[in-house]
Design a protein that fits this description.
324 residues, alpha/beta, Metallo-beta-lactamase, Chain A, seven-stranded mixed β-sheet, 33% helix, 24% strand, globular, binds zinc ion
Length: 324
C-alpha cells in the first residue's frame, strides 16, 4: 500500500477508533449520576447481588451471580445470565469496583449452566470495553475446558476485533483458569478465599467459598443440599449466603416423586436452611438462588427462615447491597 494511502487509512482508522471508544464509553453507565447512592462509602467488604434467580427465566431475577467488594476490587462468585449488565447497573448506582471494564476475577461454584451462562460475557464484554488484563477464573475441574471451548466458539469474533478496525487489545480476552480443589484457593492483599466441597447431587465436585476480608467472613454456598462442610466453613461467620427453595417441589417435565428426590439431593429447603444457619452460628443469613414452588412467596420464605433462625435474615433481590 503506498504510504500516503496508508496515512489516510490510519487517520480514518484513528477517527473510527475514537468513535468506537466514545460509543463504548457511552454504553458504560456513568458513575457521575448525582442521585447515585454512596455505595462506595459503605464499609468494605460488602456484597452486591447481581442475580438471585435460578435456571427459570424470571424477568426480575437474573442468573445466579454476586460480587464481594473488598479493597476496592470486585470478586465475582458465579456468572449467570446478565452478569455484566448487572455489574454495570451496580456501577451506575455508585459501586466503582463494578465498572465492567475492571471486572477481572471470578470464582465459579460448579459448572451447571445457570451459574456459567454469563461466562462468555465476563470473558469478552469487559475486553470489548477495553480491559487489557486476562480474566482470572477459579472453579472446579472442567472450568478450564469450558473457558477454552468458549474462546474457540468466539474465535471469529476475537479475530475480527483484534485484526480489524476495532483494534481491540490482544490480551484482555484471554483467561487464566485455575482448577480449584477444597482448601485455600486464592489470596491477595484484600481477601483470602477458601474453597470447600458441598453436596450438589451427582456433581463430583461442587464448591462453596469462604471469603475473609478486613476481619469479616462471608460464606457462599453455591448450590447444595444441607452440607456439614458448609456448617464448618461458616462456624460463626459474619454472613452466610445460601441457596434455598420453598414450597413442595413440582416440575412441568418430571413426575413429582422424582422431582422431590432431585430437590432433596441437590438443593436446600427453607426449613433446612434455617436449621443449618443456626447450627453454623451464622451472624446473618442472606438467601439467594430463590426457587419459589407452588405459589410460595417471599413472605413465606422470610417467615420460615425467621421461625428457625434468630439472626438477621435477608431474602436477596437483584442489585441489593448487603454488609456482613
Ligand atoms: Zn443453580
Ligand atoms: Zn446447580
Amino acid at each position: 500500500m503506498p504510504s500516503h494511502r496508508f496515512t489516510q487509512f490510519s487517520a480514518f482508522s484513528l477517527r473510527l477508533t475514537a468513535f468506537v471508544n466514545a460509543f463504548l464509553l457511552a454504553s458504560t453507565a456513568s458513575a457521575q449520576n448525582p442521585a447515585a447512592p454512596p455505595a462506595d462509602r459503605r464499609q468494605e467488604p460488602f456484597v452486591v447481588f447481581l442475580g438471585t434467580g435460578t435456571p427459570g427465566p424470571t424477568p426480575s431475577r437474573q442468573g445466579p451471580s454476586l460480587a464481594i467488594i473488598a479493597g476496592g476490587n470486585a470478586y465475582l462468585v458465579d456468572v449467570g445470565v446478565g452478569v455484566v449488565r448487572q455489574a454495570n447497573a451496580a456501577y451506575a448506582k455508585g459501586v466503582a469496583a463494578l465498572n465492567p471494564r475492571g471486572v477481572r476475577i471470578a470464582f465459579v461454584t460448579h459448572l451447571h449452566s445457570d451459574h456459567t451462562l454469563g461466562l462468555p460475557d465476563v470473558i469478552l464484554t469487559p475486553w470489548v470495553l477495553g480491559r487489557a488484563a486476562p480474566l482470572e477464573l477459579y472453579g472446579p475441574p472442567g472450568i478450564a475446558a469450558m473457558a477454552e471451548n468458549i474462546l474457540k466458539a468466539y474465535a471469529e469474533d476475537i479475530h475480527i476485533r483484534t485484526t480489524g478496525l476495532e483494534q481491540a487489545n490482544p490480551t484482555g480476552y484471554k483467561v487464566n483458569s485455575h482448577e480449584t480443589e477444597p482448601g485455600e484457593a486464592y489470596r491477595d492483599a484484600n481477601v483470602k478465599v477458601t474453597a470447600f466441597a458441598v453436596r450438589h447431587g451427582s456433581w463430583p465436585l461442587a464448591l462453596g467459598y469462604r471469603f475473609d476480608a478486613a476481619g469479616k467472613s462471608i460464606v457462599v454456598s453455591g448450590d447444595t443440599s444441607p452440607a456439614e462442610n458448609l456448617v464448618q466453613a461458616c462456624n460463626g461467620c459474619d454472613l452466610l449466603i445460601h441457596e434455598v427453595y420453598i414450597g413442595s417441589p413440582t416440575s412441568a417435565v418430571h413426575p413429582t416423586e422424582h422431582w422431590v428426590q432431585y430437590m432433596a439431593s441437590f438443593h436446600t429447603s427453607a426449613r433446612q436452611l434455617a436449621e443449618l444457619a443456626t447450627r453454623a452460628h451464622a451472624k446473618a443469613l442472606a438467601a439467594t438462588h430463590l426457587a419459589f414452588m407452588q405459589g410460595a412467596t417471599e413472605g413465606d420464605l422470610l417467615a420460615t427462615l425467621k421461625r428457625g433462625y434468630s439472626g438477621r435474615v435477608v431474602v436477596a433481590h437483584d442489585l441489593e447491597v448487603v454488609n456482613p
